[in-house]
Structures are given as structure tokens and as C-alpha cells.
Amino acid sequence: MNQAVISTRSSNWIMFVVAIATCAFAGCSSEPIKEIAVSENSSSDTAPAVSLAEGDWPWWRGPNGDGRVLEANGPSTWDAQKNVVWTAPIPGRGHASPTVVGDKVFVATAIDDEERQIVICLDRKTGKQLWEKDIHSGSFVERGHHKSTNASSTVACDGTNLFVSFLNDDAIWLTSLDLDGEQRWQTNVGNFKAKFGYSASPVIFDDLVIVAGDNRGSGFLAAVHRGSGDIVWRKVRPSMATYASPAVHSFDGKQQILIAGSEIVASYDPKSGEENWKVAATTEACVGTIVASDELLFASGGYPGSETAAIDAKTGKVAWRIDQKAYVPSLLYHDGHVYLVDDNGKAYCWKADSGEVAWRHRVGGKFSASATLAGDKIYVISEAGLTTVFRATPKQFEEISQNQLGDESFASPVIADNHLFLRIADSSSGKRMETIYCIAEPQPTTPAVEPKKVETETGE
To answer: Using CA atoms, how far apart are residues 153 and 97, in angstroms rounded to an integer?
Structure first.
């Protein structure tokens, strides 16, 4: 055979092997995902009005998407027996938080050895399982990280229907169920090249469900119609491995979708998906969800950098930035201050207008769950299942209690109608088991009023 041909074939083979090795190490890029404009795929269907009640926790980070329920009064102390209203076993593994709406509790989970991704419904008063629905069977994607699961996205509920997102068969699928567990529709929102799985939760806005799909292949942000399941719009985002859920906040009456990651913080119009602004901030990989005051938004991340930034929501200009971070846990804004317990168990309170430290305190432990505020109490749970309750005050770190359940927790605390819902795992028996705990302290009751005795005069 001609030596030149042999040489060419050898060179081609070497280039092929190098390409495969590079792909395996760094991740192959794919064609950019196709953008969809509103006019191309607008739906004439109508979605039912969002119908929720006070005391519901309808989606990731609660009714306002910021981890706060200001009028609630959650419990301060508990253990495996004390102040436990009910417990419910949850099969498999997942980091999704419970969703509490009406008389039901919904939770996503995955049974890895059977490759099943499911949604479970519990009775809110008793914890009794009402139904279980398989969403996907087979085609699991390698998680790639011990903190990742095949069910890390929290279910969203509009009061009438459920919306749950899963990574399956190299794509992000959004599925809608009714409250009895019957599937209404299922949509492939976009292909997804995973590095460490998928964690973003869906967000409801008007007739839309907003889904983030940041990934190494071709990142995207999309809006799906709640009624039809049609993709109303989809925008290309940078192709980086990042994991944050979007948030919708209003500034001067204008709604904005906000998301951190891919070395930027960006704002989008929720109705059209058009970008309002973007600014270089945080780092490549972010997990926490943005929170906001009336004028500023606060974002933190992540990997490989370390930064927390406050950004003017109208202009997209950075107001301040510091080199401290929360990678996985989300920040919490309240009353002019930003609170967090970072991944390594350090608690901070910063002045929201400047980033100046009001106080810092070492809680200890490792943290992945986000903080939840009820009234003036902040709840943070460690990866080892220890919940620390402390006061939301800038004066000093004021611990109220510490409460241990199980030996593992990654899901964030949920407060609904003064009840605390925790997703806890326990391996003390030699077999890992997950449980939803419903916890509440006895509420004071008004003492019964004894009828007054009326003295009557009797004549003789």
C-alpha cells in the first residue's frame, strides 16, 4: 500500500482518538439549540388562573420564590418524637423539597436501581400516601456527583395542576399532572448534556412555566404554556455547566426573570424571553436562586470562582461585590439585610445596601439546603440532618435551637400554615430510608369561659 496513504490513515486515526479523548474529558459541544420566538409558537389555549391559599407552599422557595413566609410561626424545637404530627416514608432518593397546596403534599423522587422518576402525593393532615405516578422509566443519565440526584427539582403547583421537570434521556422534560396524578401533557423542553445532573426547578408566571436548561451542550431558558404544554419561547444561553433555578421578581411593576450562572447574572422579559440586561458577575457554576429587595438583586456562586454581588435591577449595574460565596445554598433577603449559611457552615448577615458584614458566626457542618424564614426565625438544615433555628436580626447571631433528625438532608425546609416539612434520610438501620416529617408545636388555645352565675332574689 502507498506509504502516503498509510501515513494519512494513521494521522486520521490519531486525530480521531484525540478527538474522542478530548470529548470524554471536556465534554463534546453540540449544535446550538434552536431559539423559539413568541410569534412562532404562541398558544391560543388558556390556562386556569393560579389558585392558591394562604398557608400553601406551592413551588421552590415558597409563595414569593424567596424562601420567606412572613406571617408564619414555625416550630422551634422537635426531635424524632417531640412535636411530630406525622411521618411518611418516601421510596428512592431525591433532593426536591416538598410542595404543599390545599390538602395535599407533593414530592418528586427517583428509584435509581429501577430507573424510575416519580411524583408522590400525601395527605396534608395525616401523611397517608394518596397516589404515586411514574413520570419516566429507564434512560437515566449518569449523575456524576454524590450531591446530585435524579430528582432534585421541586414540583410546582398552580392550585389546579402540577409541573415537574426531570433530566431523562439527555433532555429536560416538563410534565403536567392534575391533582389526582393523571398526566395532562409532557414536553421535551430541550436537549441537555449533563456534567453533574440537573437541579433547576420550574417557576410559574401567568400562563407560563419557566424552565432553565443551562448545560455544556447548548444552554437555554424556556417558557412552556401551562394549558397546552407548547413551548412559547426559548432563548439560547451560554454552554456551561451551571445549576441555578430562575426567579421572577417585580421592580417598579415590571416583572423580570433573573438567573445567575455561566459567569453572568442576566434578566429576561418573562412574556417574550427577550434579554433586558446581563452583567459579568458571580462565576461559572451557580446553584442558588437569586433573591431581591425593592431595588437590588443578590446572587452568589460558586465554582471555580467565589463571589456574591448586589446588582441594580433596573440598570444591571453592580452595586457591590465581595469575594465570599454560597455555592449550593440560596441567599435570604429580609428587612434590609442578606442572610446565609454557606456550604461550610459559616453564617453571615450582610447589610444589603453595602455588603458590609453585620455579624458572622460558625454554625458548623456542611450545607446544601437553602435557608427558610418564618416570621422572625430562620431555618437552616445541614447535610447531616441538624436544623439550626436562629433569629433574623442584624444585631448578633441569636441561636434559638438545634434539632436533629436522621443523618442526611439536602432538601430545603418548607413552612406551610405554621407546619414545618422536612425531607430526611436515615441510614442507622443499615439501609438508607427517606422520610417526610411534618412538625408543629401545639398552638395555644383560648380557655373556655365559664358562664357567670347570676344571683336572683326571691321574694318570700
So the answer is: 8
